[in-house]
Specification:
The complex is a heterodimer of chains A (277) and B (237). With 277 residues, chain A is α/β, with parallel strands linked by helices. Chain A contains 10 helices and 12 strands. In chain A, the strands form 3 sheets. In chain A, strands 1-2-3-4-7-8-9-12 form an 8-stranded parallel beta barrel. Chain A has a two-stranded antiparallel sheet with strand order 5-6. In chain A, strands 10-11 form a two-stranded antiparallel sheet. The longest helix of chain A has 19 residues. Chain B has a 3-stranded antiparallel sheet with strand order 1-2-3, with helices on both faces. Classes of the chains: A alpha/beta (277), B mainly alpha (237).
Chain lengths: 277, 237
C-alpha cells in the first residue's frame, strides 16, 4: 500500500461513493488513490469527515468539484473556494479539479455541467477564473473536458483547441475524460481521435473513464455502465501517445459491487502497464 | 452575442415553465447528429431530476405519501418558482416544507408540512445545535416544534392510513439525536426542551442557578432529576 500511496500518478484509482465507503474502510483494498466528490462533503458532516480522515491514512486522495463555475461571467463564489481550501488543508489532496462548463449565471444555479461556446471571449473568462480559483486554493487545478449535448453557432474554434489552450498563462493541468471525448464526438459528429491527437501530452495530468447510456438520438454521460469497448480503444490510443498517467474509474449511478469496479481498474492497469514497457 | 447573454439565455430556457422557442434554439448548431430539442431536454431533465432526487433523499415518507409522480410535480414546481440560489443542492431542502404548506392541492393535509419539517430535521440530525466544541451537550441534538402527531405516519408509512384517516392535531416538540451510529427521536416535554435549549446556549454551565432565575415552574431537585434523565438518554454528557 505504501509504495502506491507515494505514487498515485502512475496507477488507476476509483471514485469514492458513499455506498462503498464502509467496505473500503474495513477491507482497505490495494488502490493507489481515491477521488472524492468534494461538493458532497462541504457541509463538514462530522461523521463523513471522520471517515474521510481515516481513509486518508491509507490512501492518497484527489478532489473533484462540480461548482467552481469557471466558465461563467458571474463572479466566483469565494465562500465555495474557502470551504474547498478548508477541506484540502485537512485531507491534503494531490489534485483538485473541475470542468470546462458553467453551473450558475445571475446567481441561479443549475447543478449540471452546462456547455460554453468555444470563443476567444469564453476562453479569456475561463482563464481569468482559473487563475482566481488557483489563488484562492493556493494550488494549481486540473480542468476536465465535459460531455455535451449542444454545440454553439458562436463557437470559433474546435473543443480540443479551447481545451488545449487553458494551461497557457494559467499553469492549470488538463484532466482528459475519454468517455466524454467519445460521447461529445458522437453527439457533435467529430472523430474522438482528432481531439486526442491535437492535445499537448505534457499538459494532461489524469485520465477519467466511465460508461454512458445510448438514448437512441444521442449518448448520455450517465456513469452507470462499464467503460464502453470503443472508449477502451481510445484510452489505449491515448496512453500510447501521451504515456501512462494517473487514471480514474468513475461510476455514479446504478452503482455495482466494488469487485466490478476493480475489474475495470484491472483493465485500465493492463493498458497503462503495457504503455510503461 | 456576448458570453453573458448566451449563458443567461440558456439559464432562462432551463428555468422556463414552457418552451421559449426559436430565440434559444438560434444559439445552437443544428447540423450535428444530436438535435437541439434532444440536447435541451437532456439538460432540462438533468436539472429537474437532479433537484427531485436531492429532495426525495430527504423527504422519503413525504414522497411515499404523495406518490413519486406527485412528488416530481411539486419538486419541479418548487424549482421553477423558487430557483436554486446556492451551489449546494442540499440547500433546496430547507425551503421545501414551507413550499408544501403553500400548495392548494394538498391544503387538506396540513400535517404534510410537519412531516416534511420532521424529515428535514432527521436528515440533518448529525448537525443539530452544531455545538461541537461544547463539552456538555450531544452535538447532534436538535428540537423541532410540530402541530400534528406525525411520528406514527413516519413509522408506519402508508399503513397508518389504513388504521386512521388523519394524524391528531396537537402542538408538541420532538427531540432528535444521534448516539453510537444510530439516530433517535421522541417527544419531549416543553420544560425539558427549554432546559436543553438553555444548556445549548449557555456553554460551560450546568447548575440550576447558573441556568435559570425564576422562569421555570420546577424545583432544583426536579431539575437534577431532569439532568439525570437527559444523561441517561445521551442528550448531555
Amino acid at each position: 500500500m505504501n509504495t502506491t500511496l507515494n505514487n498515485p500518478q502512475l496507477f488507476c484509482g476509483i471514485g469514492l461513493r458513499s455506498e462503498h465507503m464502509n467496505q473500503i474502510l474495513e477491507e482497505l483494498p490495494p488502490l493507489p488513490f481515491l477521488e472524492i466528490l468534494v461538493d458532497n462533503y462541504l457541509n463538514f458532516s462530522p461523521v463523513a469527515l471522520d471517515k474521510l480522515t481515516k481513509l486518508r491514512e491509507s490512501y492518497a486522495l484527489s478532489f473533484h468539484c462540480v461548482s467552481m463555475n469557471l466558465g461563467s461571467t458571474d463572479p466566483l463564489d469565494i465562500s465555495y473556494f474557502e470551504k474547498i481550501k478548508k477541506l484540502a488543508d485537512i485531507l491534503q489532496p494531490f489534485q483538485i479539479s473541475d470542468h470546462v462548463c458553467f453551473t450558475a449565471i445571475n446567481n441561479t444555479h443549475h447543478h449540471d455541467l452546462l456547455p460554453v461556446p468555444y470563443t476567444e471571449e469564453a476562453l479569456q473568462v475561463m482563464k481569468k477564473n482559473i487563475i482566481q480559483a488557483q489563488d484562492q486554493l493556493k494550488s494549481s487545478i486540473a480542468i476536465e473536458n465535459p460531455s455535451s449535448y449542444l454545440s454553439f453557432n458562436a463557437s470559433t474554434m474546435p473543443e480540443w483547441e479551447f481545451f488545449n489552450n487553458l494551461p497557457i498563462g494559467t499553469g492549470c493541468e488538463l484532466l482528459l475524460d475519454l468517455n466524454n471525448v467519445y460521447v461529445s464526438g458522437k453527439n457533435h459528429g467529430y472523430d474522438p481521435r482528432e481531439f486526442i491527437d491535437n492535445l499537448t501530452p505534457q499538459n494532461i495530468a489524469q485520465f477519467h473513464l466511465a460508461g454512458f447510456e445510448d438514448a437512441g438520438t444521442h449518448l448520455i454521460d450517465s456513469h452507470s455502465r462499464p467503460v464502453f469497448g470503443n472508449v477502451w480503444k481510445i484510452f489505449s490510443h491515448t496512453v500510447n501517445k501521451t504515456g501512462p498517467k494517473s487514471t480514474l474509474i468513475e461510476w455514479d449511478n446504478d452503482i455495482p459491487e466494488l469487485k466490478i469496479l476493480f475489474g475495470e481498474v484491472d483493465k485500465a492497469e493492463q493498458i497503462l502497464q503495457r504503455a510503461l514497457k | 452575442m456576448k458570453l453573458a447573454e448566451i449563458l443567461t439565455t440558456i439559464s432562462s430556457e432551463l428555468y422556463a415553465k414552457s418552451e421559449r422557442g426559436d430565440s434559444t434554439k438560434q444559439l445552437f448548431n443544428s447540423k450535428t447528429p444530436t438535435s437541439i430539442d434532444a440536447g435541451l431536454s437532456t439538460y432540462k431533465n438533468n436539472l429537474y431530476y437532479g433537484v427531485a432526487d436531492a429532495l426525495r433523499s430527504t423527504f422519503v415518507v413525504v414522497e411515499e405519501i404523495l406518490t413519486s409522480q406527485n412528488f416530481n410535480y411539486f419538486s419541479r414546481k418548487y424549482l421553477l418558482e423558487k430557483h436554486s440560489l446556492h451551489h449546494d443542492l442540499a440547500e433546496m431542502s430547507y425551503g421545501f416544507p414551507a413550499f408544501l404548506q403553500e400548495q392548494k392541492e394538498i391544503e387538506g393535509s396540513p400535517w404534510l408540512f410537519d412531516l416534511a419539517k420532521f424529515e428535514l430535521a432527521w436528515e440533518n440530525l448529525e448537525f443539530g445545535f452544531g455545538t461541537l466544541n461544547h463539552p456538555k451537550i450531544n452535538s447532534t441534538l436538535s428540537i423541532i416544534q410540530l402541530d400534528h402527531q406525525i411520528l406514527d405516519i413516519w413509522n408506519q408509512r402508508l399503513e397508518f392510513f389504513v388504521k386512521r384517516d388523519q394524524p391528531i392535531q396537537e402542538t408538541h416538540s420532538l427531540v432528535l439525536w444521534g448516539h453510537d451510529n444510530s439516530n433517535f427521536c421522541e417527544p419531549i416535554h416543553p420544560q425539558s426542551a427549554k432546559v436543553l435549549l438553555c444548556i445549548a446556549n449557555t456553554p460551560g454551565l450546568l447548575t440550576f442557578k447558573g441556568l435559570f432565575q425564576d422562569d421555570l415552574q420546577f424545583t432544583e431537585q426536579e431539575f437534577e432529576e431532569m439532568i439525570n434523565f437527559m444523561e441517561s438518554k445521551k442528550w448531555i454528557f
